[in-house]
Amino acid sequence: MLIQWYPGHMTKARREMAAAMPSQDVIIEVLDARMPGASSNPVVTELRADKPCIKVLSKSDIADPRVTEAWLRHFESGRAEGSGEQRGGPVLAVALSTEKPGEARAKIAELSRRLAPRSGPGKAVRAMIVGVPNVGKSTLINTLMNRVVATVGDKPAVTKAQQQVVLKSGMVLWDSPGLMWPKIEDEAGSLRLALAGSIPDTAIDYLNVAVFGAQLFLDRYADRLLARFKLTELPGTAEALLAEIGRRRGCLRSGGGIDLHKAAEILVHEFRSGGLGRISLEEPREISETGETSEAGEAPA
Ligand code: GDP
Fold first, then answer.
1. Confidence band (pLDDT; 50, 70, 90) for 156?
2. Farthest CA pair distance, the chain
3. Is residue 86 packed enough to be buried (19+ CB in 10 Å), middle (13-18) or exposed (0-12)?
4. How confident is the model at residue 124 (pLDDT cuts 50, 70, 90)?
5. Residue whose CA is closest, atom 13 of ligand 1?
6. 222, 226, 247, 287 from 232: Cα distances, Å
7. Which among 171, 170, 193, 166 has a CA at the least distance from the CA of 182?
């Protein structure tokens, strides 16, 4: 196991979410558009059961638009993650970003109206926002409120109190009652979360994460690597790419060799800061490998 991060079990969060679920009309599940599978938690799918759901692909401004389109089609086709089966209640999916707050407010209002059977004059739609840490839940709540009400953190797992807010449209919005952890025991998913900064940096080995990222970028975004690091030709392996980045960016050890750890940090930072452009780490066809039935997220205390 490459990632050593055991944030605690989810028993309490699961219980609280189960208790809050029956009074909701719509579940708004926020997923990171760059990795909707890795940033999901099967407990949400299990607990929402037949409730209508809006899948929000957040941070779409930094994800690959072609891949985001594929995810939207995937979710709206009704296939559950990890299987080809129809499952659960109706799902509508939308890609949002902080760049277009007005669009986010309009889309959420429209999709909620379409999904919520109890909507109508005098009947507020009740929606609960759920998702693992760092996907952008607080940011979305602030956008929907059109002011700052929720704590936004650039670190995973910023704890905050449960809250309920009433939007101008009359919609009542609940913040998720507990922290739901991502599926950190799935190795590919963990590496995607680590690369994007959704697992604390203290828990990751930069070199492992960067080798994973380097291979993915070589396979799918080679042109970006060539442009960003001014390479004349593409190195054949992830390790060779890191060595080349180290050489070009002056990451030298005292003995004169290349400091691969420094090169790894540079690559990870370039990705996170958007230096490599809009990149997605996961496509719909890849999520069957993570499965959906495991007790993912139930990390040991
Ligand atoms: P939460 O833990 O799910 O509540 O996530 P936050 O709302 O605290 O957001 C986590 C990080 O993602 C913060 O650094 C946000 O600024 C960033 N973020 C949220 N939404 C977007 C978006 O649409 N685009 C980009 N580029 N970053 C976003």
1. low
2. 74
3. exposed
4. confident
5. 154
6. 12, 7, 14, 34
7. 193
